[in-house]
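Researcher: I'm preparing a figure for a lab meeting and need a structural model of a single chain. I don't have an experimental structure, so a prediction will have to do for now. The sequence is pasted below. Please return the structure as tokens so I can convert it later.
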Amino acid sequence: MAKKSKSVKSSGVLKSVKDSSKKKVPRKGSPEPRSRQVMFRPGRLKYVRGLVKSESCVFCAALESGKSAKSLLLATHGEAMIVLNKYPYNAGHLLVLPKRHVAKLEQLTVEEAADVFTLQKKALHALSELYSPAGYNMGLNLGAAAGAGIPDHLHWHLIPRWPGDANFFPLIAETKVVIETLEQTYKRLVPYFS
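Model: Understood. Here is the structure written out token by token.
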């Protein structure tokens, strides 16, 4: 069968993609759509490759600015805080971290560790209520060699996951399409931490 070309009108970030019209039957329960939209974000390449560096710690700056959608600071509890990931893997991608600028896990006080864990539990509850994910990725990258984009300030990732949300595109193009804006995510989550 002939291939059809689909055009998607937008602000220039979504482009036409080829759609194979072969009658492929998706796996049972598969969320695979018959056609796909592709988002191109070449500006993100500088961040991913580490070419854009901040003079100050973005987490400390968020804490200093206070809770707002602009700072991405969602909540604080004792010696810990939650911020939205500026470059989320999925909607609801949160970072839980100590307020104190510290790079090594063994440098955390017992109080800081307890407050981080308390906020992780609270964040998981909020994400479960709002997004109903099938699972979570939750983890900490210690050091730049382990993948930490900001290695000087410990932070745990909480990423809601659903079947079919991963494909080759983020790996090859270093771009991920997220279903809602950071402002929308912030507005949905903030009542859980008030």
